[in-house]
Design goal:
- The chain has a single domain, classed as Orthogonal Bundle (Multidrug-efflux Transporter Regulator, Chain: A, Domain 2), CATH 1.10.1660.10.
- Helices cover 41% and strands 13% of the residues.
- It is built from 3 helices and 3 strands; from the N terminus they run βααββα.
- A 3-stranded antiparallel β-sheet has the order 1-3-2.
- The protein is elongated.
- The termini are far apart.
- InterPro entries: BldC-like, DNA-bd_dom_put_sf, HTH_17, MerR-type_HTH_dom, SinI_DNA-bd.
- This is Developmental transcriptional regulator BldC.
């Protein structure tokens, strides 16, 4: 197994991150501005987020309990 380099790490769009957290994409942008997520800017100026960082943040968020 080879270690992933930052260049080969999958990047997610704000919409993809928003879907994972079930929030609006604007919320993801606010999180990046607040320093909760590190964003990478594309040449066109769009934000992208490292998948490993997003999944780590997702794992640290308490999940709502299912009532049943």
């Amino acid at each position: 197994m080879s270690a992933r380099t930052p260049e080969s790490e999958p990047l997610l769009t704000p919409a993809e991150v928003a879907t994972m957290f079930r929030v609006d994409p604007k919320t993801v942008t606010r999180w990046a501005k607040a320093g909760k997520l590190t964003s990478i800017r594309t040449l066109g100026g769009h934000r992208r987020y490292r998948e490993t960082e997003v999944r780590a943040l997702l794992g640290s968020v308490p999940q709502p309990r299912a009532e049943g």
